[in-house]
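Example record

The entry below shows one chain as it appears in the dataset: sequence first, then C-alpha cells.
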Amino acid sequence: MTEHFPDIEIYIMKAEPAAVHQWLEDALQLPLQTLKETAGSHHWQAQVKGSNMDIFLNENAEKNFASLWFKQNLTPWATDLDCGRAAHAALGSEVRCSDSGWQEEHDGDEPGWIKLIRGEEKPFDWV
C-alpha cells in the first residue's frame, strides 16, 4: 500500500490558471473558493469532509513551470506522482514531480524526479 503524503506538490509547464482550476473542481468534485489572486499567484480552498484544503498555484515557480501545492493532502491522490499523472492526463501539459516523499538529503543514486511528457514517464535530474 502506498503511503498517503501529507502534502502534494507538482510542477506544470505553462499552466493556465483557469484550466487548472477547472480540472481541480472536476477531479475533486468540489467547488474551489478563491481566497487570493495576485499576478501569477492563486490561493484556492476546498472544503473536504469538514476540513479546509488550501491549494496554491504559483505560475512562475521555475522557468516555464508553475507549482501546484496542496498544503493539506485531502485529495484522491496518495502521492505527488499520482497527482502528476492525473494532471498530465487532464491538462495535456508536461508535468514534473518528485518520485518519492520528501527527504532531507537525496542519496544521489536515483534522479529523484519524474517527467510526464507525451504520455510517458521518465526519471530525470532537475537541478
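Notes for this example: The radius of gyration is 14 Å. The chain has two helices and eight strands.
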